[in-house]
Amino acid sequence: MPALILQLSRVGFLILLCLFVLAAMRVVRADLRWAGEIRTSDSGGRRRGRRDAVDPAAAVRLVPTTLVVTAGALSGTRLRLGSPGPILIGRAEDSTLVLDDDYASTRHARITQQGNQYFLEDLGSTNGTYLDRVRVTTPTAIPVGVPIRIGRTVLELRP
Questions:
Q1: Of 126, 75, 65, which Cα lies nearest the Cα of 97?
Q2: Separation between Cα atoms, residue 64 and residue 144, nearest integer Å
Q3: How far apart are CA 105 and CA 158, in angstroms?
Q4: What is the pLDDT of residue 35?
Q5: 110 and 101 Cβ atoms separated by less than 8 Å
Q6: Which residues form the signal peptide (predicted)?
Q7: Cα distance between residue 117 and residue 144, in whole Å
Q8: Residue 50: its pLDDT value, please?
Q9: CA end-to-end span of the chain, whole Å?
Q10: Fewer beta carbons within 10 angstroms: which end of the chain, N or C?
């Protein structure tokens, strides 16, 4: 009987080792995919050849009306801006934009409106909130068309 238990333990350990290797490969593949997306971006963080890119000088004059998810699981999702109160982003079910993203915190970020300007604030997330590849540490004004990255999700304010 002890030989059978030893053999079953070896097989169980082998199965666990295989599952660990598969999980590690999945993470590496996702990181390589993300690095490829960054590499194909231009200096403004937008993909080359995109027709709806906004000129940074014109972005100052534009008033955003929509928050658009441009990459990630919710790609194509649009939120109308202008409703009272902040837009909460995270994995929590009561967030305005609920992200199904392993790299997003429960309460990840908040977008607030002050006049015609919107501000992005990181709520102490583990992996950070990025505005055009720069980590947000204080409430920061969001220009129109500049990408906001939360985990694998990318958002933009659009007119």
A1: 75
A2: 6
A3: 25
A4: 55
A5: no
A6: none
A7: 10
A8: 44
A9: 72
A10: N
Burial class (CB in 10 A: 0-12, 13-18, 19+), 120: buried
Contact of 64 with 158, CB cutoff 8 Å: yes
> What's the confidence (pLDDT) of residue 74?
79
What are the average pLDDT values for consecutive 10-residue runs of the chain, which has 159 residues?
88 95 87 58 44 49 77 80 79 83 83 83 84 84 85 85
C-alpha separations of 149 from 9, 13, 23, 105, 133 in Å = 44, 38, 24, 13, 8
CA 144 to chain centre: 17
User: For residues 50 and 104, what is the distance between their CA atoms, to the nearest angstrom?
Assistant: 27
d(CA 153, CA 38): 13
Dmax over CA atoms of the chain, in Å, equals 79
CA distance 157 to 78: 10
How many CA atoms within 13 Å lie on the side-chain side of 48?
7
Amino acid, res. 132: D
Q: Going from the N-terminus, what domains does the chain have, and what CATH number goes with each?
A: 66-158 (2.60.200.20)
